[in-house]
Each structure stands twice: as C-alpha cells, then as structure tokens.
Write a structure and sequence with these properties.
Elements: H1 3-27, H2 32-42, E1 48-51, H3 54-59, H4 62-68, E2 74-76, H5 84-92, E3 101-106, H6 134-141, H7 146-155, H8 159-162, H9 164-179, E4 188-189, E5 192-193, H10 194-197, H11 204-216, H12 223-234, E6 239-243, H13 248-255, H14 258-273, E7 277-280, H15 298-315
Parallel strand pairs: 1-2, 1-3, 3-6, 6-7
Antiparallel strand pairs: 4-5
Helix pairs in contact: 4-15, 5-12, 6-7, 11-14
Length: about 325
Amino acid sequence: MTFRPLALQLALATCALIALNIGVARLARKSVPRQLLDRSERSKPATDLFLGNSTMAAGLDEMAFAAAQPGSRPLNLGLGATKPIEHYLIYRQQDRHRGGALYYGFLDTQLTDPPDSGWSFLFGNRAMGYYVETETAAEFYFPNDPTRQAAFRAVAQIPVLVERSAIWAKVELVRRSLGEIGLPKKESNLFGRVEDFSLLEADRGVFALHCARATEARAPLAPSVAALLAMARDRSAPVWVIEMPVTEQHRRRLYNTPAWAAYRAHIVELVSAAGGRYVQAADWIGDDGFADHLHLNAAGAAAFSARLAIDTRERR
C-alpha cells in the first residue's frame, strides 16, 4: 500500500528535476561565454585577437585599435571573471581567425599561478569548461587526477549544476535591489558594483612574498598559459603578452617594489622563451581613465588601445 504513493512521489520529483534542467538549459543558452563564442564565429577573420579577463574585456576598444593600425580587424575576446584555462579554451575555438596576432592581457601573477579548480571556483563564466571542450578542460583543471576528472565530466551532463549561477545571479539582483530600498543607489558598471573591485586588492606583504617565492623557484608559466602560447606559435601567430594598465594605487602598493621588478624580469624571460613579446603597459593610463579599481572607462580604453596598436606596430 505504501509503494504506490512513494512511486508517485519519485515520479513527480523526477519530472520536476527534468523540467528544472530543461528550464535552466534554456535560460543559459545566451550565457556570456556562449555569446562571446557566437560573436567570434560570426565575425570576419580577424587580424588581431585579444584574450584575457575583464581587464581586457573593458580595456580593448576595437574601433580605437583599428583606427591606429589601419587595415587591422581586431576582435576582443576578453571575458570577465575568468582565468588562463578558460582563455586557452576560448583560443582553441578560433580556427576561423587562425592567422590573427594574439594579444594576451594579464594582471599580477596570473601567468605563473597554479590553477584553482573545483566546485566553488567553476562558477559563472568559469563554468564554460563544462561545455567547451570538456575533456581538455578536465585535464587542465584536474591534472593526473582521474577521479576528479570523472566527477567533472559527470557534472557537465547536468545543466542545473553547470549553470547554477544563472539562477543565483537573478536571486542576487533581487537581494541587492531590496537592500538598497531607502538608500542611495550604489554605482555599478558592466562587471558589477564599483566598490566591490576595491575589495580584490591583494595584501602588499603577501603579494611581495608570493612574487619573491615564484621568482626564487623559477616558477614556469602555468600549463594553460604555456599551452596557449604554444598553440599561437603553431599557428604562426605573433604573440604579445600585456601587463594590463592598473591604477596608480595598485602600482604604488604592489608594482613599485623590488619583488615585483624581479618577478617581472622572470616572466619576461618566460614569455620570450615561449616566442612572445612583452608589453609593459601598467602605467600607460592615469586614474582618470579608470571606471573602478580594475577596469578602464571608455576614454581610458580608447587611449590604451590606440597606444597598444602603435606600440606593437612599431615593434613588428
């Protein structure tokens, strides 16, 4: 007598889960990574490809670059809240733009940092590894760990887990809207609240120690960065690795130190050995060119892009 109600409950729960997964999958069809790859696929073959996180997404003005480098067709593939593994996955999809020069923007010690992976990290835009070259992503996120690779592949089959940020993002928007009732609206931009980015600033002492240890250990390029530069080299693409513009406060606290100078010299060697050329652009833009602690505003992006076009054209 109790089996039938239990079976009915299980059937209803199964149907609800299936419906939820279908709904989430439809909701995520226009996720930011998918839109980026779709735009790349629809674009004319590019002469110049730009990769990186939100600093590149906000910092590269395609029109300003093209105006300063006549005849070029730049394509900005910068994607916010991502790390080098995602950048490598994006670049692997660019057969259409195979001959384009690669401009890879980075911030702080991203070129040599080991990958951070796992459930709590592969969220939002970083979840693209679940549906863009899943096998390759699994190998880079969990090297030499078949068990975690298998778990990663299993999660990739369940939309409600892969795209959980699509739900939580809407919940967060509602929460923040309710939290601002009766209060002045907080300044925000394409990437989030302006005040949030100031919280990402590293501790000066910890950062200096991290740089010193990486330099002393002769830390190699992160595997995904090395693979990215190697693929560009195989495609006969010129490679520019760009130390992205940062605010005066960021330079003063973190970059104007012996530890960073030594680390920078180390990564310049690594980039050169990998066939790339290094662009030291951290101090190219003043604070009036920033929209927040990390991202350039429209004027800053135009100035940076024009200077980058001229600088790299003269060095070719």
